[in-house]
User: What shape does this take?
Amino acid sequence: MSSKYMLCSFKTCPWVQRAAIVLRAKQVPYDITYIDRDKRPEWFLKVSPHSKVPVLVVDGKDALFESNAIAEYLDETVAPRLHPEDPLARARNRAWTDFVPTFASAVSSTMYADSDEEFAEKAARISSPFGKLDEALARRGNAGPCFNGPAFSLVDAAYAPFLQRYTFMDRLRPLGIIESFPHLAAWRDALLAHPAVKASTVANIEAVWQENLILRKRWLGQFVPTSVLGASAAA
Ligand SMILES: N[C@@H](CCC(=O)N[C@@H](CS)C(=O)NCC(=O)O)C(=O)O
Assistant: This one.
């Protein structure tokens, strides 16, 4: 008998999106519950030791936290396996997945900069993690379009939300960074076009993400067209 899954999220969380991508790639139905960042419910605080999303509730009784643990649990329990079968390849995939927080932090700290100067300073730090990934992709020994070749894997699910956030930011305030990294750019294009990634968020995610910049009073929010206000309510 298949389990029932409920993902607990804030509206634009990339870490929740990572878990949602895994569920979509496995074609597993799930419910999503959005909680208020400023008024986190008691039941959530009891099961999320760091008060963070995602939380995955399995069959209404077991709660898991941390997106990597959730992704690995789903991969161990629900077919098809997304990690590569070969142990060496799997270890390399896990090693690159361990780099996601560094990669994500370079993108997110730029996104949430408070001034023009901070934005430029943080953006200048993106090239280092982008360059490392580009080199890994160049040396991976396959032609893509995913990290391991044609098959979509957990490592793809882990990076896709942050490559998408970079892309949203780049459209708002062109950064001109990814253009120097052709392997990463091609991987980004393939991931953002993948059905599991496209189905992992609300349909108007870019507008909701933009509105969030305004609501959170971020410097980048000044470049968002006012027409997006209300996007979150419509999502
Ligand atoms: N390492 C965690 C990171 C999760 C995370 O940072 N989630 C953010 C939302 S996108 C969060 O809940 N932050 C706590 C807060 O905003 O107070 C994971 O991979 O699940």
About this structure: The chain is about 50% helix and 5% strand. The longest strand covers residues 5-9.
